[in-house]
Amino acid sequence: ELHGRINQKLECSLLCVTSANLILCQDRRLTSYDFAGTKRREWAVDSVIRYIKVVGGLNEREALLVGLKNGAVLKIFVDNAFPIQLVKLTVPIRCLDLSASRAKLAVVDDSANCLVYSVKTKELLFQEPGANAVAWNSDHEDILCYSGNGLLSIKTGTLPPYQQKLQGFVVGFKGNKVFCLHYSTMSTVDVPHSHAVHRYVERKQFQDAYRIACLGVTEEDWKMLGMAAMQSLALEVARKAFIRIREVKYVELLNRVELDRRVSGGDDSFLLGDILAF
After folding, report:
1. If you ran DSSP here, which 8-state letter would residue 71 be given?
2. In the chain, which residue ranges form alpha helices assigned H by DSSP?
3. Where is the IFT122 second beta-propeller domain positioned along the sequence (predicted)?
4. Each residue of 228-240: pLDDT tens digit?
5. Domain segments of the chain: what residues?
């Protein structure tokens, strides 16, 4: 459709599309065209542009992430003439993404390092080696994935990465699905979040475990979470986990336990005995 409406030759090395604009990249210059082919805005930057990505925003006011060969990372709004520098590295940029709340920036550099920064403080939060591309989970602020060396790595919070084999580059991540590009083929890969749920349960971080489980885990994982939370008297998480898998008998047990807790005035030792006896 766009090809039929823009009857002119437009040269570029990179291209992206927003709600009302085509953004073309050529060397150190970004140019915005509307869908009729009229030039709307142009930006000149200090170094060759290596990467560009649309990271959302209001219609006709979207934000772009731009990575430069000199290591600079810029944010550009399509309705604003002035780029904003987010961070500056010492090596060229290979890939970029912003977290769901726009609070954290993930950068892959030419040394194959994945570096995560706070957008507000510019502080380096953590880094992981062996990456060629990165994507944040659009449904969860603290989960990202990166590809490299034939592996897909899923990093959840401060937990060690979970890895599985993958050919190609990650380009997107939503819920428990990773979108990958291998040559000219786009594919969807289902990834488990069970490893993160189990690690959080081991740490008794039941709220974190529940939030991760909501992205997609097995019925056995939900039951494990419910039982562990119930035995630690994290009753609200336990209830929500059992409701997810329709374990009516455990929901009814929790109803009785909560009633007994109110009657006993907060003495939990007897409640745990009732749960274990059940």
Report:
1. S
2. 2-5, 194-202, 206-213, 219-231, 235-244, 248-264, 268-277
3. 4-186
4. 998 898 989 999 9
5. 89-191, 198-277
